[in-house]
Design goal:
24% of the residues lie in helices and 24% in strands. It is of the alpha+beta class and 338 residues long.
Length: 338
């Protein structure tokens, strides 16, 4: 309820209220991460090489980004000490509250891989349980804005660079997939969904209010917007596989630290955003998802179907947007692009 009130009041003062996590690099370069449950918002912001500002809810004001909370709420299922060392370490600390996690009643040893109660196992812990958290929960102006999406269709690139206008469109759309274990009543197969501003239930004003404020702040402070797909590659759910978190981290690190400023880009034939053609430490074929599918024709059929869903969803939002916003969304394809 408090976050909903803030989402009403703060934009009236020119402060962007955000359902996002945030961290900051050693040079003071802040980054914010938008995304629904299951997209990696908590995991990817808890980066040993960067300091954590906060896990879930923030404001972006005249002096930079600041956290509304004093704790984190992370998924625990299949948590890895290698891939997610900071969050994993909290499961060994007194004071962390674990929900639905299976453990041996005698030895009290946790089994984070056991999903017999639910896949939605969780851990709640104070922010300072993350060793390199920022004590005052504030940072400067974000230099990078990251939209996290879990594309179960397996067609979106693992990372793309968006123009400010494209950022408005994708922020209003808030595309991802609901994942089993994070949604009540959801079966095994992910369900495509759109949640405006990556936090639709909390938003009070029309989504364009927040999106336009985001665009203005990005332009004012020279921030770059990235769309990161943490979903499937090599095919849709059931055929392909989840993109490696190791690859996602390398792509993000390259984006946040300038590595992707020095590579060539291609224009995506459906969405029109820019996709890097290479990234150190990441196999080149996953940067162009069509190459990971058995059939390029089937890939573009699936991509066209996703574009159609975006276009249909945006019709609901169009009435509250200025003319032209929808032009920065996807285009339907009639076949395999040349």
């Amino acid at each position: 309820p408090v976050f909903t009130v803030l989402n009403y009041l703060l934009p009236l003062e020119g402060v962007l209220s955000m359902h996002c996590s945030a961290n900051v690099g050693k040079d003071g370069d802040a980054a914010i991460f938008f995304g629904l449950s299951g997209t990696g918002k908590t995991t990817l912001s808890a980066d040993p090489a960067r300091r954590l500002v906060g896990d879930d809810e923030h404001g972006w004001g005249p002096n930079g980004v600041f956290n509304f909370e004093d704790g984190c709420y992370a998924k625990m299922i299949r948590l890895s000490a290698d891939a997610e060392p900071q969050i994993f370490a909290t499961t060994r600390r007194f004071g962390t509250i674990l929900e639905n996690v299976v453990y041996d009643p005698v030895s009290r040893v946790l089994d984070l891989n056991d999903e017999k109660l639910t896949e939605n196992t969780r851990g709640a812990y104070p922010l300072d349980f993350i060793a390199n958290a920022v004590p005052d929960k504030r940072a400067g102006q974000p230099k990078n804005v990251v939209f996290l999406t879990c594309d179960a269709s397996g067609v979106m690139p693992p990372i793309s660079r968006l123009s400010p206008e494209q950022a408005i469109y994708h922020f209003i759309s808030g595309y991802t997939s609901k994942i089993a274990g994070t949604e009540i009543g959801l079966g095994i197969e992910p369900e495509m969904t759109f949640s405006a501003c990556f936090g639709g239930p909390f938003m009070v004003h029309h989504p364009y209010t927040y999106a336009d404020l985001l665009r203005k702040k990005m332009l004012q402070h020279g921030a770059t917007c990235w769309l990161v797909n943490t979903g499937w590659t090599g095919g849709p759910f059931g055929i392909g596989k989840r993109i490696s978190i190791g690859h996602t981290r390398k792509l993000l690190n390259a984006a946040l630290h300038g590595g992707l400023d020095r590579v060539r880009y291609r224009k995506d034939p459906v969405f029109g955003f820019e996709v890097p053609e290479s990234c150190e430490g990441v196999p080149g074929e996953i940067l162009e998802p069509a190459n990971t599918w058995g059939s390029r024709e089937e890939y573009f059929k699936k991509y066209d179907a996703l574009a159609a869903r975006f276009i249909e969803n945006f019709k609901v939002m169009a009435a509250g947007c200025p003319p032209g916003v929808a032009e920065h969304g996807p285009r339907r394809t009639s076949g395999v692009p040349a």
